[in-house]
Amino acid sequence: MLGVQIAHITKTYRDIQALHDVSLSIGEGELFGLIGPDGAGKTTLFRILTTLILPDGGSASVCGLDVVKDWKEIRKRVGYMPGRFSLYQYLSVEENLTFFATVFHTTVKENYDLIRDIYVQIETFKKRRAGKLSGGMKQKLALCCALIHRPDVLFLDEPTTGVDPVSRVEFWNILDRLKKQGITILVSTPYMDEASRCDRISLMRSGKCLSIDTPDNIRKSFKKPLLAVQADNMYTLLRDVRKWTGTYSCYAFGDSHHLTLKDDTSNTGMLKSYLEGKGYHKILIKAIEPSVEDCFMELGDNV
Amino acid sequence: MKQFISFIRKEFYHIFRDVRTMIILLVIPIVLIILFGYAITTEIKSSPFAVLDYRRDDVTAKLIEQLQASEYFELYKIVDSYDEAETLFRQGKIRMLVSAPQPSKEGVIGIEVDATDPNEATALLQYATAIISTSDIVMRNPDIQIAQPGIMPTVNLLYNPQMKGAYNFVPGVMGLILMLICAMMTSVGIVREKELGTMEVLLVSPFKPVYIVLAKATPYLLLSVINIITILLLSRFLLGVPIVGSFTLLFSVSILYALVSLCLGLLISTIADTQQAAMLISGMALMLPVILLSGMVFPIENMPWILQLFANIVPAKWYIIAVKNIMIKGLPAEAILKESGILLFMALFLTVVSVKRFKIRLE
Amino acid sequence: MYVIETDRLTKQFGNFTAVDQISFKVSSGEIFGFLGANGAGKTTAMRMLCGLSIPTSGKAIVAGFDVYKESEQIKKHIGYMSQKFSLYGDLKVWENIRLFGGIYGLSRKRLADKTDELLHTLDLEKERNTLVHSLPLGWKQKLAFSVAIIHDPKIVFLDEPTGGVDPVTRRQFWELIYEASARDITVFVTTHYMDEAEYCNRVSIMVDGRVEALDTPSVLKTTYHADNMNGVFQSLARKAIRGE
Fold first, then answer.
1. Among residues A162, A192, A220, which one ends one of the domains?
2. Quick one: which of B45, B192, B255, B328 is 20 to 30 A from A41 by CA?
3. What are chain A's partners, defined as 3 or more CB pairs within 8 angstroms?
4. Are residues A185 and A79 part of one domain?
5. Using an 8 Å Cβ cutoff, are A159 and A81 in contact?
6. Helix (H, G, I), strand (E, B) or coil at B282
């Protein structure tokens, strides 16, 4: 199986352990997500896979090529969009694209079919300088530049960070279409809600890959009962729920608080009477399915 | 090759579209030449002097007339006593005092100068002595001698008879500007790509890392050629500094020096991680030595031995010597063999080091 | 009592209208979510409210001061924190606190008390002498927020304060926001996390320079027939025609 294989990779910067025994196997044509906050080690892992830095230990291969030995060959076969990638500010959209095409020994024309869907969305601005594009458009241009040589594997490091929700949805739709073209895509994101758009994901925290599975299976692995709680004063509710005996943990989740129960011995009725006793009104409690974010928060101690 | 050309084209876009870069490249050289040529000058012009005249005959009158006739001196006052002259010295009103004793008293003409600025003092002394000793009156009166503090040299100004500052500064400014453009701009340009994240993408591409470096450096080399020509034109026609020797030779040695500067810039780019750091390092480690240790402002011979030793590794020192030899003295290629040899060695050494140091990875 | 009042506030750059006649009022102690797509005009609007940019036309009173004439007064009565610049990484935790406390003119005694209180609340007592850049991002942002309100401003402006922060710390950050709100500090916040929009008392959504919707999250969800704020945002922001 080709794609991307990672075995026991470790990496330390001075005294900070950026990656801690990371092993992953990503199949050909898979859309794989690394989900985790800043500092989880996502960028370090990307840089090792794109041959930009050397691992301290372990081994990894991309398209069956070793990231240390075959770096020259790998660089011809992958597309890479680094985090905070901002292109050449003084070059226009068109000039940026042509430049990267030439650097990768190809022309825009040759692979236009691959980027057409994305490029038409920014084509009206093709004479505009990259420095003057909005976040969403910059990101689309950067993706075009990373795709222009028709790579076998695409590495996207936090492509949606700082981008508004609408552009983010559009971006994921583009990735779906690329996947259908058979390109293996490895993408990282700090937005947990984007996890469901991947075939498989790995939750990352503090340099470790914590669980690796499909988003559905990860959600199913959440063992404790989960409740959504609402009441008239959400702020005090959070504190009061945390004080309740049956609570394992409680966090704000949008319009309700997600409450993880310690075990099955406590139930909705007991919570309701506890809250009524505290003088709450409009109490709404219901059992819910966990989201990826719930699972992430459940995984262990905070950093 | 197509990639390479495309890269260079992109580099020129960066340069032409960024106003700040354009200013550094095109305006600064001109400003520097004009500054050094006119404003910052060591030339002596209309220095005020006083005469203490006990002689009161046509000899002093003739001397004053001849000193006045030169563009270097201007009579401030004829004083009556030495005390008065001293007051004027202290007030900074005069720079030089010429005293003519009574003819009976062994006719020694005295020259005293304000030596606060030793360079200026030496020059004043030389000019005055030259004028007085060659004047007809003094020649015809063998009883008159000139006395002055220190030893009286035989003055014969070679190559630059008017002692124009520009003769000294033009080669220095060329050394400075080529260093500025080639080293500072190249290092900042490469480091900027590191900051933008584009360097990561370029590294993860089939484009060979060595080509990235070469493509970054080429536009600045071309621009420095334009600058060499501008400077030479300005100095020839604006400052009136002649190019006595071979232009081709001058041009070749300048290109060699530009190459050394480029390599230094590349070396800095492998050390610095931010544009500010690159600016700071190239400013401190490259520009200051060019200004202070190349002999452009302060004569190297007068420095303590440790600095003299250090000056040897400053490329600008050798470049400036070579330029002076060709441009001002008009010497042939053989005369700068040593200097060009040293520059060539530096270029080769730095190329090897910076290419070795340039990383194919990020760390 | 309103701490922010704008009336047809407009900012034009040449023929481009970045902010187009926005009018709204924010009450004291309110948590006000200021949403919009990239390029909708949020940053420009926020700059005008902070006294950093003079409006082209319209009216705005912030903390009781006029944005045209009293921008210096406004700056004294607001706090500001953004994702990009928050604290000096090469200064220690306590040095940062002292610096910003000093900038806002806190007395030495009060600054010392505040420092202890703040480090205690954030559970950062052990990190007092740590250089800020070696703290995890989430801690940095919590510290930056606490420093931004060290002078008890009337309003604090937060520009995407939780970008890239891990989920647990992000929630702790919002608990700090609630505490500030309980102390009657108005919180004016932009975010790209739509679940955070739900934590706001009221939310405004900007599209192409105009305030397209403004209400409580629950009313907005009913109006736009959406399950969550993401749905509301998607249906509104899709109407946008301009880029940036």
1. A220
2. B192
3. B, C
4. yes
5. yes
6. helix
| Contact (Cβ atoms closer than 8 angstroms) between residue A158 and residue A83 | yes
Domain residue ranges of chain B, discontinuous segments joined by + = 2-40+164-357, 47-147
Q: Are residues A208 and A275 in the same domain?
A: no
- Greatest alpha-carbon pair distance for chain A in Å reads 72
Quote the pTM value: 0.80
Longest dimension (CA), chain C: 54
CATH topology of domain C2-237: Rossmann fold (3.40.50)
In angstroms, the separation between the Cα of residue C26 and the nearest Cα of chain A is 20
- Whether C137 sits inside 8 A of A193 (CB atoms) is no
Residue A86: domain span? 4-220
> Pick from C166, C218, C233: which is nearest to A165 by CB?
C233
Domain CATH for A161: 3.40.50.300
In whole angstroms, what is the distance from residue C140 CA to residue A39 CA?
Answer: 12
Q: How far apart are CA C58 and CA A254, in angstroms?
A: 34
Q: Is the ipTM of this complex over 0.90?
A: no
Q: Which two tokens stand for residue C59?
A: 């009216």
- Cβ under 8 Å to C: A residues 143-202: 158, 161-169, 190-193
CATH fold of B47-147 reads abc type-2 transporter like fold (3.40.1710)
Report the Cα A225 to chain-centroid distance in Å. Answer: 26
Token pair listed for B18: 């960024």
Residues in chain C closer than 8 A to A39 (CB atoms): 136-137
Quick one: closest CA in A to B359, which residue? A52
| Contact criterion met (CB < 8 Å) for B206 and A104 | yes
Which residue do the tokens 């232009």 mark? Answer: B247
Helix H or strand E segment including B126: helix B118-134
B197 vs A86: CB contact, 8 Å cut-off? yes
